[in-house]
Write a structure and sequence with these properties.
single chain, 607 residues, Rossmann fold, 3 domains, six-stranded mixed β-sheet, four-stranded antiparallel β-sheet, 10% strand
């Protein structure tokens, strides 16, 4: 067991940061609730005084009443002892209530702050992070902090005040026996420090491994259909078992450290009792102290180590909380890659002119994705962006709403550089319809209204009708009140896409981004979606990652992207006449032989 504990203590890759700094930062969240904290501290002092006063009354009863047979005085003393302990118990009860009130408010504030901060982080950070690990920080790590604030902190504070009160009472009763009792304290502090350091490192590992387990669990549950299709369930189970075993081993090591602490304190308590009994007995024989004083000190020894053992038990919870707090604060200290400039202005209502001027961009330094992108989209124009896979099409439309920051050049909307306006005012005048539509848990009505929260039910229905979604919505069990399930999994892909288009129509954006919105649906559903898109495109500046013939043919401008550069631009007919890359892509991907068009009327209509 000791070898395992030493291995934890000597781990070089898991050095614990200063517990005091983490605790100080965590407790700073209590400031808004200082009245509850102050009231709790007052009650803690009252409870500590009752714990310290009890043995004094017991010693007094022995020396002044028991030895002389004063029954009346003994009865009065016992009633007083009962009152003291009753006051202490009530003080502890209300102290716990006040601290729980403050701690639960702190946790609510912390969750809200973390959620707000995550929403501000860049897409690059979120893409580089595992969703399961982020969820573990928001759930498991904050739960660990919850256990500490709602249970551990209250009991630790109460126990510490009890220790202080007991020490003061002992020194006032007899300083010699007081010093004898405290002689074990240096050894106790050294033991506590050693165990605390080992426990801290161990619990940091448990918090990290539970993040791995959460991440793997989310991925496996989300991909179970693919795993079954490719017969990979056994391999996935084995991989999960490895991460689960790592978390198990980390918790076993952490518990090995913390479970050894209580027996160590018991041993020290027994040694201290023996010291007090020996010194007290010697002083009593010499007539220097009374028997009642010795009995009181033996009671104090027990009372002295009881709160210490409580602190030890709560310290286990504290170490887990500190490890969780480290991960939470690490997330909060992650700076967004870009924020609104200090002099950023609100973007006024725009006409929709968009200009890319010499835009360069790379996700990783030294690996350019876009190089010198120049083009202008006039208000109301539809710009189709085509090119081979990995050419940079999606990157271009991701830069427009500032999901990423350009490395060079500029993007202007109605002559406003997007870096000089607030992100909220910029994105409020844009909408996106993606290839994989995302719906939130809730009703159809709530998902469409997501595009404009203040919209009336009539406006929502009008948007659904414009998106060709009203008919299928009315066939659902509860119409617009039908629950779509998690991520909309109770609806088909085409139905989810029609709802996402209705959401965009309701938002009434000036600039619209379509990322292959019809790429994954059947041709009959594509006809419905295409008609809805035609209504959505009317009068708006639109950027379309082109996939279907109709979108490319009807676009005002087609930009052909290859290796991060615009290699061709023009209308559909002009680019076909040039017989370049666009013509090659068209003939290879978009061309439909006449005989196929005749036998597939839906596709022909979609063209």
């Amino acid at each position: 067991m000791m070898q395992g504990m030493q291995r934890i203590a000597q781990s070089e890759d898991e050095r614990a940061t200063d517990s005091g700094k983490v605790l100080s930062r965590l407790l700073s969240y209590l400031r808004p609730y200082w009245l509850s904290v102050a009231g709790s501290l007052v009650l803690v002092i009252i409870n500590a005084a009752s714990q310290a006063g009890g043995p004094l009354l017991i010693g007094r009863a022995i020396d002044q009443f028991v030895t002389v047979g004063d029954r009346s005085g003994l009865a009065t003393n016992m009633i007083l002892l009962l009152v003291v302990y009753l006051v202490g118990m009530l003080a502890m009860r209300f102290q716990i209530y006040l601290m729980n009130y403050a701690s639960q408010n702190v946790l609510a504030d912390l969750r809200r702050q973390v959620m707000q901060h995550v929403q501000r982080l860049s897409l690059k950070f979120l893409e580089d992070s595992e969703a399961g690990d982020l969820q573990s920080r928001l759930l498991n790590d904050i739960d660990a902090i919850n256990s500490f604030l709602s249970q551990g902190l209250t009991q630790m504070i109460g126990s510490m005040f009890s220790i202080v009160g007991i020490v003061i009472a002992m020194m006032l009763l007899d300083w010699r026996l007081g010093l004898a009792t405290l002689s074990i304290v240096p050894v106790m502090l050294l033991t506590t420090d050693v165990f605390a350091r080992m426990a801290r490192r161990a619990f940091r590992r448990t918090r990290s491994t539970i993040g791995d387990v959460s991440s793997d669990l989310q991925e496996e549950l989300g991909g179970v259909k693919v795993a079954q299709a490719f017969n990979r369930t056994d391999e996935n189970i084995d991989r999960f078992s490895e991460r689960n075993a790592a978390n198990r081993d980390a918790n076993v090591q952490a518990n090995t450290v913390t479970s050894a602490f209580a027996p160590a304190m018991d041993i020290l308590s027994t040694i201290d009792t023996a010291i007090v009994a020996g010194v007290g007995g010697f002083l009593a024989i010499q007539g220097a102290v009374t028997i009642g004083v010795v009995v009181a000190f033996l009671q104090y020894v027990q009372n002295f180590f009881r709160p210490i053992q409580t602190v030890a038990q709560m310290w286990t919870i504290a170490q887990s909380a500190f490890a969780g707090a480290e991960r939470i604060f690490d997330l909060l200290d992650t700076d967004p890659e870009f924020e609104d400039a200090t002099d950023a202005i609100e973007l006024p209502k725009i006409q929709g002119r968009v200009a890319f001027e010499g835009v360069t961009f790379s996700y990783k330094e030294g690996e350019p994705v876009l190089d010198g992108i120049d083009f202008v989209a006039q208000p109301g124009q539809t710009v189709a962006v085509v090119g081979p896979t990995g050419a940079g099409k999606t990157t271009i439309i991701s830069l427009l709403p500032r999901f990423y920051e350009v490395n060079g050049g500029s993007i202007k909307i109605d002559e406003y550089d997007v870096r000089h306006v607030t992100q909220h005012s910029l994105r409020s005048q844009m909408s996106m319809v993606l290839q994989e539509p995302f719906l939130f848990s809730g009703s159809v009505l709530e998902n469409i209204r997501y595009g404009k929260l203040e919209a009336s039910d009539e406006q929502v229905q009008a948007a659904a009708e414009a998106a060709n979604a009203h008919e299928f919505i009315m066939r659902l069990p509860d119409g617009y009140d039908t629950d779509v399930g998690e991520r909309g999994n109770l609806l088909s892909l085409g139905q989810r896409q029609l709802i996402s288009i209705a959401r965009a129509i309701l938002a009434d954006p000036r600039i619209l981004v379509l990322d292959e919105a019809t790429a994954s649906v059947d041709t009959r559903t594509e006809v419905l979606i295409q008609k809805a898109l035609n209504r959505l495109l009317e009068g708006r500046t639109s950027f379309v990652i082109a996939h279907r013939l109709s979108t490319v043919r009807n676009a005002d401008v087609v930009l052909v992207i290859n290796e991060g550069k615009i290699v061709e631009r023009g209308t559909h007919d002009e680019l076909l006449a040039e017989d370049g890359l666009y013509a090659e892509l068209y003939n290879r991907q978009f061309y439909v032989p006449p005989q196929e068009a005749e036998t597939t009327p839906e596709l022909a209509a979609g063209d």
